[in-house]
Design brief:
single chain; 356 residues; alpha+beta; Peroxisomal Thiolase, Chain A, domain 1; two-stranded antiparallel sheet; 40% helix
């Protein structure tokens, strides 16, 4: 069986950035105006809306996020068509920026696997990326559209499967414009989503053969029973509406621990053999609860925490930022687990081995 390795990782973010303090103030004002059209931030303060939103912002542990549009433009978004037109205009550009950062050799690439859940087009932007990057016309294309935040990890796993029977190289590219799902609604799940999700793209170059990189050893998936209503998107007349139930943080730790232990056991390993935990930065409470359940030491999730603080949760693109930070740090040869969470609720895992 062919050895498959993640040899390079790159990310890209839009140029508009917003601090979490500014985001909290703007969201509070939008919520106040939605109830009282002539009012603004003063009413948000008087009604306690601003205090509530700022408390959620502080608990997010996010300093700033990148946005595809200026905040004022996002506040005025209307129909699903308007939002999706913006997605189609910007997604391929941002995806291309991340992919070109890998400096791929088009002649060696056999596949392009893409992930996105924050917009929709037929054909997808993968075909445009083939042309922009100068890839061969017989490049295998696989778009992954419904895996949510776990999409990047699912793409890495399926690309590995392809390369094991089709030696060569492949690109995985994820692009998410989460801010286009902004809704002026005060439900807790929507507010939390508005304060943690950011926009960005990530890309990885996978190659067969040996060399200094992350060798993908195995993958696994676990579907948590009776959890369909906990995480996802509802498609409404005004675009995607985030579904983010507080039960998520209670469901993930035990399921993740069980899935990780089962994957490791297939290779004669235990949780104690894992040298690095590369976890999707889904949110502060998720990282805290997961670290406590797995009894991870201080700093064990630092790549995830750093990514969350500086970029927020960029859905399926976020795991590439975690991988990029990990690969940039000098480390010994070690086992690592790459973990993502998606709607279903599903837990996705990759067992990888770092070589110097």
């Amino acid at each position: 069986m062919e050895h498959v390795r993640i040899s390079r990782v790159a990310v890209a973010h839009p140029r508009h950035r917003i601090s979490q303090d500014d985001a909290a103030g703007r969201i509070a004002e939008v919520l106040a105006r939605s109830r009282f059209p002539m009012a603004g931030r003063r009413l948000a303060r008087l009604t306690g809306v601003e205090r509530r939103v700022k408390a959620l912002a502080r608990g997010s542990h996010i300093a700033c996020r990148a946005l595809v549009l200026p905040p004022a433009d996002l506040e005025r978004l209307g129909s699903i068509q308007e939002r999706n037109d913006i997605y189609q205009q910007h997604a391929v550009r941002l995806a291309s920026h991340a992919a070109t950062g890998l400096e791929p050799d088009p002649a060696k690439l056999r596949a392009l696997v893409t992930s996105s859940c924050t917009g929709y087009s037929v054909p997808g932007w993968g075909g445009s990326l083939v042309e922009q990057l100068g890839l061969r016309c017989d490049t295998m294309l696989l778009p992954i559209t419904e895996a949510g935040c776990a999409g990047g990890l699912v793409a890495l796993a399926r690309t590995t499967d392809f390369l094991r029977s089709h030696p060569g190289g492949a690109l995985v590219v994820a692009c998410e414009l989460c801010s286009l799902a902004f809704q002026p609604d005060a439900t807790e799940g929507n507010l939390t989503a508005s304060l943690i999700f950011g926009d960005g793209a990530g890309a990885a170059l996978l190659e067969t053969g040996t060399g200094p990189a992350l060798e993908v050893i195995d993958s696994a998936s676990m579907l948590i029973p009776r959890s369909r209503e906990v995480l996802g998107f509802a498609l409404t007349d005004t675009g995607f509406y985030p579904i983010l139930d507080r039960r998520l943080v209670d469901l993930l730790p035990a399921a993740t621990g069980h899935a990780a232990a089962a994957l490791l056991a297939r290779h004669g390993l235990t949780l104690e053999d894992v040298g690095a935990w590369l976890v999707h930065p889904g949110g502060a409470r998720i990282l805290e609860r997961l670290a406590a359940h797995l009894r991870l030491g201080e700093g064990a999730l630092r790549w995830s925490w750093d990514s969350l603080r500086e970029a927020g949760n960029t859905s399926s693109a976020a795991i590439f930022d975690v991988l990029r930070r990990y690969l940039a740090e000098p480390r010994p040869q070690e086992w690592a687990l790459v973990i993502g969470f998606g709607p279903g609720v599903s837990v996705e895992l990759l067992l990888v081995r770092r070589s110097c």
